[in-house]
Design brief:
2 domains; CHAD_dom; 237 residues; 0% strand; mainly alpha; CHAD_dom_sf; CHAD domain-containing protein
Length: 237
């Protein structure tokens, strides 16, 4: 696969801390790790990708936080001054953080093994059984950590699937709901240290975040229950 080549094309913008480059690079790290794992590559080959993902992850989280807060505050009809202060607050924080970043050495691509497709199919089948087993516990759980871990495994499953073709639309939709659910959890945590100019909006923000979290969780449950039976048949056929 050509994950390293694609990363090289992004590298100049990534070194500048460009938001889109960070987003694309982070996705590439997950795709590369899924590919290496599925094709049986040595574990040490995953480490450079993991180091890069861990380095840039806080900045992607910061960008997502700003985007969500802007959207929610607009829905609450916040005044323009508050929105300007919000952008300034996060932009300043981001610049300060990026100034201290040292990107790791760029990962390299490996030669594709001859039996890559067979290994990918075996990985998909094994992972699907694990996901179903994990889901039985997650669906009964109120622990955000359990849902978060399951989401990570589902994302890996998606990227493994995409080695050979398009991932199922239901899987992508499920991940969208789980992602929004987690975003709302992270946002609520960040409000604990919210700058003073946001304090007048905190009660409403928390209420809206809770509503959106619960709605996303409900949709995720329903979609999983409807899709998992069908997908089981597809995998086993």
């Amino acid at each position: 696969m050509d994950h390293a080549r694609k990363l090289h094309e992004l590298w100049n913008e990534l070194e500048k801390g460009d938001e889109e480059a960070i987003h694309e690079a982070r996705k590439l790290t997950r795709k590369a790790q899924a590919y290496l794992r599925a094709t049986g590559a040595p574990r040490k080959t995953l480490k450079p990708w993991k180091r890069l993902r861990q380095t840039i992850a806080p900045f992607r989280d910061l960008d997502v936080t700003l985007d969500h807060l802007k959207k929610l505050l607009r829905e609450l009809q916040a005044d323009p001054v508050t929105l300007e202060l919000l952008s300034l607050h996060y932009t300043t924080q981001r610049i300060r953080m990026w100034a201290e970043v040292e990107l790791p050495v760029k990962p390299r691509d490996l030669q594709e093994p001859k039996n890559a497709s067979d290994r990918v199919q075996e990985t998909l089948e094994d992972d699907w059984q694990s996901l179903r087993k994990e889901a039985r516990k997650v669906m009964k759980s109120r622990e955000s950590a359990a849902w978060h871990t399951w989401r990570k495994h589902l994302k890996r499953y998606r990227y493994t699937w995409e080695i050979e073709g398009e991932a199922p639309a239901e899987l992508i939709e499920l991940l969208k709901h789980l992602g929004h659910m987690q975003d709302m959890e992270v946002l609520k945590e960040k409000l604990e240290d919210a700058p003073e100019f946001l304090h007048p909006y905190l009660p409403e923000l928390r209420e809206v975040m809770t509503q959106q979290h619960d709605e996303a969780q409900r949709k995720a449950r329903e979609l999983w229950q409807a899709w998992s039976n069908t997908h089981q048949v597809l995998i086993e056929s």
